[in-house]
Amino acid sequence: MSVLENYWPQKSRVEECIMTEAESLSDSLLMAVHEPMRLLKRHHQTGEEMRADEQALFDFFLEHNRPIPITGSAGVGKSHIIRWLGAQLERQPDADKYHTIYIPKSSSIADVVRLLTEGLKGEVYDEIRRSVDGISQEIKVSHIAEHLALKLRLCLDEELQKLQSKLDVNYQPKPEETQFFECLFTHASGLQALLQDSHLTKHFTREGACLYNIAERLYLGVKDTEGFEQDYQMYAEDFEIQSEVAAAAIDAQMYIQNSQLLTDPNSRNNAAWTLNQVLYTACGKTAEELLKINPMTIQKVVRSIRQQLFADNKANELVILIEDFTTTTAIQKEFIECLMEEEQHHGTQTLCRLKSVIAVTEGFAGYLHVRDGILGRTGYEWLIESVNQNESETLDRIIDFCGRYLNAARYGNRKLADMFKKAGNEHKWITVWHDTEVTESEYRPRLDAFGYTHQEYPLFPYNRLALEQLARKHCISHGQLQFHPRSILHYLLRQPLKLGRESYLANTFPPAKWQNFICNTAVGSQFSILSEPERAKTLAAVWGGNPTSIQRLSNVLPLEVCDEFNLSDMDQVLDISAVKPHPVAPRGNNLETSNVHNVAVTTTQINNPGNKPTSPSVVNDPDIPTEPKEILEWREKLDAWHQGSSTLKQPDAAKLRRWIAEGLDTSIDWGHYLCRSQKINFSKIHLPVKVGNVASPVLDLSNADAFKQNGDQWIPAFNAMAAYHHYNKTWVFEGGDVAYLHYQNFFEEVIPKVTEHLVSQERKLLSSIAHKLLQGASFIGAEGANARSGRKRLDAILFTTQEKRQYKLLGDLDAQWDLVSSRRKELRDELVRLVAVRKPGAEPYAIDGPLVIDALKQPPVKEPDVLDKVLRDAPKLRSQIFPTIELLRELFEGDKDAVEAASEQIQETLSLAIHTDVVHPTEIASKLRTSLKAWSKESRTKLVKDLSNLQLSDDKENEARLLQDIVSVDAEQYEVAYQLFNDFELFEKRTSALLITKIRTQGGEEIEQAQQDVFNQLDMIEQQLEELN
User: Fold this and answer.
1) pTM for the full predicted model
2) Which domains does the chain have, with CATH numbers?
């Protein structure tokens, strides 16, 4: 039964009190959850750093009238400390003299102007406000992005001109200018070409792209309530333009090629860095031209505010707190100048004092342009530390941070505001929230079981180990635990508390695999007897720190925690005697005197009991059975891999693949599948999380969802493999019977997948070989190669041999005959290897014919091969001979008498032409006589008959039949017929032309009569021969 319901903040209070952006917090909430920052104060000239606290920063702030930069990585709390400084000002005795203007990090450039002019009266300010208010109705973000691209190009051109002017006078750059000059010289012209190319410009300005995001931030600000980071910078990944290069202009392509922009990460980094150097200028010009915001107007506004405040009271001070320097990018130069403007002019004070603090994200290029100017006046830069050398210290900070927010959310915003108002200037005004119905009842031990922070804040619904597990999931950077407030607020508090309360009230929290946490398999396997084993695994993985044994879990997970989450039956597996008594928090609310630690220890102590603890240590039970070191190491590696906290190193992954491959080799009965026995290549086994996976896997276990679903079964099997090989491939060891079952279950699951894949591959290979053999059979003219009967086709590919044809083949088929014959032998041997029936160790004694016949029914697989080249040549050869064959078929239809008659007609026509002296050219007559003699009566009749019977199908599905037709043609005989018809066609054209000329010049009945005789003869065959060529 759940009894700590009131300690779980209501959803509405979570939403109003646990927010990721400091700008959304009220002053009371801000002070209630404030965690003292760790600061470094860095001297501008010497670079010397010294540690400092917030009070030192506040004192420095009160003392100096210059902009104070506070830098740090994204999410470390820069805006939070800005708000804290403002809240501290309001608590000063002379708070009335400070006129404070906050510029939130979500502000657009128009918002900045509105905030500065808020409350100012007069037509000048009214006009400024009207101009800004009218912007949103006139301009599209895409238009601003395109304008920004144009301004970037122009700014680069300006910088290039400046550089050229300096080079003309032999200017020697300063050390800090070297990088800019080098990058400008290398990239500026090329970047101009990119931004001028309409195709590539769309890559940068389309919705969601870098320049679009910058334009949107400039115009609309940041609207994401979850802390979306949208800064004014370009990055190397913005130049991933591979898909757009082909359509780019030639000058853009030349720059991309010469600078190696697509292949060299340094080149992309330098290109982005170069644009960032002029980006703030381009933003300023865009704001001025499109948004009608003149930077000089900002200076005028700030000066007017200072003049008015000074006129009202000479003690007044203007305070401008900027939560993110990027909000002023478009006006930053002029804005910084107005923040540094002296209050005295010619010895007379006319302006009130001005204090300002600027939060800057590390690496922001725009800040580097004004940094020296700011620090030259201020002298110091303040840095917020985010990473600690001591991981335990970082974890303590995270847990205390969560405790403060939990305590505030239990109160709610309204109660906090009342308490803060009544407290006045009291430094310590917030107390620990408690439910007396719990703290003064028998349920107090249950609350205590979840533990407390150093300041006594109850950690429920978390405990120390749960927060550590969540932090290690969401607050790791470069392998190191990091104090990152935004991530802590979002992932550790806001989302879990909002989404989990209903399931907690329904007694179903934590759900199975909550936040994808995976329980150690050695522990999780013990929960099968419980009513809700999957929820128990989550509790052990998170609130128990995911230990490697039940004994260690018993040491750190109090049964009261199980009871609160409706998992009381976990006492069936936990060793109750091992649970250490937990300390009880003091019942008072004095935050100064209490220093209570949670009973739970860190995950590091649980799984590495030899380490020196930072909290109460875990006592190792001497009765816990010990396993060999190698097996323990494998268990830890596999569990960490399964849980996602680390990857499996390449050597370990390779070893695991070998074990799986060996298990498959010994478990698969290939004879059962009518397949040849084959050894599994271990590199073809894909493991989860893509640990060194290669292409074309035999067994693919890499699917992340499958790993989450089946990991609880796979990991014990992998552990069993490690033990099996450790004990010399036997199961004779303690727990070997259980390990064997895990091992067998795994292979029973995967063997069908492996055999299905390999058999499928084998059948595809068989089909490919069988079809190629059929092609070869067609080439040699084997009987049955084109039959419909599967048995005849089988005989053709296996048993038919053919000596080389006695006649010359068309094209270069003669040269390919030997290659085809050799290839057919290789393919036959491979076919026999695939389908031969044999006893182990013996020679094959039969062929599985039906298997081959079935393979021939499958569509042929297109693969490069000698036979494929022959097939590719077949359509060309068909096109070469088809017109002649088609003509022969139409002329003679295989009729012997028709062939002889055609020959006689050609002979008569030749004689008539000679007789009338109209042969031209004269050598053609000799060629025709020779051709007619070569084409003897018997051979020409057989040739015409054979060629007329050819089908020469152009059906791509029947290429083998086409090839068989082509290899049946005697190339020499075909050439004689082709040459005869070709010569006669030439003879006919030349003779007719000469004859017409003679008639015109000589006339005469004899010639006319000869002409008519020749024409009559020609007309008989002219129409039949016109298609020869």
Assistant:
1) 0.56
2) 39-137+292-384 (3.40.50.300), 141-286 (no CATH), 391-607 (no CATH), 629-758 (no CATH), 760-867 (no CATH), 872-1025 (no CATH)
